[in-house]
């Protein structure tokens, strides 16, 4: 083909259209005057414009479509002529006198269409004559457009079953033969395009071939016509149509044509035909050129069959009957073996498509699923961790398919080759896949209930639990990391077994894995393990109560020993505030189990952490209030142990950095000496000592404020202490006298009226509310009202 520029091509197209329109004008004038000879003369001259070799397929298509429209008008004229008595046979002979072969063949096809409609000759004879004569054009583009025209005008005139053109004999065979012959010749012309012109223009020619494929004149259109012929049943398709098509596909030895035609075959013929001829279709795959993208062809075939299987359960026996899985599996193996240079991504795509097919057709055959994963592992062996993003994406799709189908991780855990495939993912993608597994468990609320399954699961998600050696020093995205570890924490909460002994084994297994996670992970993973263990402790406690002396193998004491060692691991992080909270939670659980030594040990560890590790003043305030709150709820301690722990707590309170914090912690300690539901812990004298000490600290804070700021600080501390006095007064503490309360009220009133007092609306409202409460109790009457009566508010 002549090399040319875009501007030249536009010029040649314009010239061609002008010539075509001029001759069309004269043709119309001849038609209007019923002058057949002139009509044929000008139509032949009009069609001569299609003899050009200068246009690209797209531009040639524009010219062709204009000629096509004019030929439709000419065809209508011929029909009218035959109705008026003109012999169609004479017309058929007359058009063959056109000087140039290309116009002659276009006119012959046009008259041939009318000839078939007239039924003066069998359709099969006319079609055979036309398809043979079209061999006279061997120029690729001109030949393709001519044969496309033949296909267009003949598609509704084929001698098919039930058609008005059906003859007496086996005419369906003739119809099929006509379409197949036209298809074969069109494909040869299309393939030949790549060899036209100099080698340096090969890339442009390939582009033009692709353009032709996308135009309506495409070779594959013949296959669509074949699929629409009613008489093409399964037997004819299997014995004649498919072998002829595949023979042409294989023999053309052209990468573009082979890929396109295989895809056409898969798309245009019915699913049930593909299923019944699977072996024939698959046998062609290894014979294709090595550069053909066969993975996409096979993937689309399996996708169609998968959708066919999903459409109705009634068709599933057909798949079993033809042994579809076995044939596809063997074919994929042969293709991968034949195409040595096939990228890993391509091979994994094939396995992924086969797996999707298997899950639709044989959902109950886990051995098939594992067989596919095993083949994938074999292909990946020796490759190490993959760095090809397309390959890893396909592996994630492959591994996700069983999770989506079965909605149960336990089924995936039965697949022996599942972990083997995961090992080839790079660290980043491994984490993504681990996240997909955890999401599946959360979404389906799956409880993993045996040690073996937990072990297998944690092996799968170890990318989230432990850094690989290569990634130890890599920078990590803080937000992503937190999200990953929170998902692991949620997973730990999903582990459960009714049998305490098995549950303890699960806890020990999880502990073994999470302790390898390094200091950054432990703050996320240790707390859920602790709380899951404490759930087991409370279950054991209720079982011991119900068992009436029967011995239970895993004892709370044993679990507490494990928990103590686990919390100690947090010291490497360090997160002393978190560790202290966990020690106090365990102490409270030990209290519920009446294990005094265990509870005391946990408190001791909490105190050591407070003294040695917690240095921030705010953290100390939070910690001391947690200690006081937990200790107040403990009932298991004897007098000596409780006194020791209480003394320590009050000591810590008085040593806080800021006076207001000291004051609040000290008056909170008063609750350690007066517990409502315990008659043995009601020491009114020590309660009063705590409150007086808090009062002294509040007074010192007031004076310090006066000395540093030149004005008195807020009286809020005094009001808070007054409320503590009222609380213990109501509870019957005889050491809290009316005079002490009255004195405190007067002190607050005096301070609030002082000129140096800093305005504090919140404190004013608090004090007013406290006084209203006293008035309310007086008005309420009863025993409590009598107690409040002497207080003047």
Outline the structure in words.
This protein is elongated. The chain contains 39 helices and no strands. By secondary structure, the chain is an all-alpha fold. It has helices spanning 6-32, 36-47, 57-83, 88-94, 101-118, 123-133, 140-154, 171-192, 202-214, 220-228, 234-252, 255-268, 271-276, 278-284, 294-311, 316-321, 324-338, 344-361, 366-380, 389-406, 409-413, 418-422, 427-444, 451-460, 462-465, 478-493, 500-514, 522-547, 556-568, 576-592, 596-612, 617-633, 639-654, 659-669, 684-709, 716-730, 738-753, 761-780, 782-788. The model is unreliable at 548-552 (pLDDT under 50). α5 runs antiparallel to α6 (123-133), α11 packs antiparallel against α12 (255-268) and α34 (659-669) runs antiparallel to α35. The longest helix has 27 residues, at 6-32. Among the domains are: 1-120, no CATH class; 122-269.
Would you kindly provide a brief summary of this structure?
With 793 residues, the chain is mainly alpha-helical. The chain has helices at 6-32, 36-47, 57-83, 88-94, 101-118, 123-133, 140-154, 171-192, 202-214, 220-228, 234-252, 255-268, 271-276, 278-284, 294-311, 316-321, 324-338, 344-361, 366-380, 389-406, 409-413, 418-422, 427-444, 451-460, 462-465, 478-493, 500-514, 522-547, 556-568, 576-592, 596-612, 617-633, 639-654, 659-669, 684-709, 716-730, 738-753, 761-780, 782-788. Among the domains are: 1-120, no CATH class; 122-269.
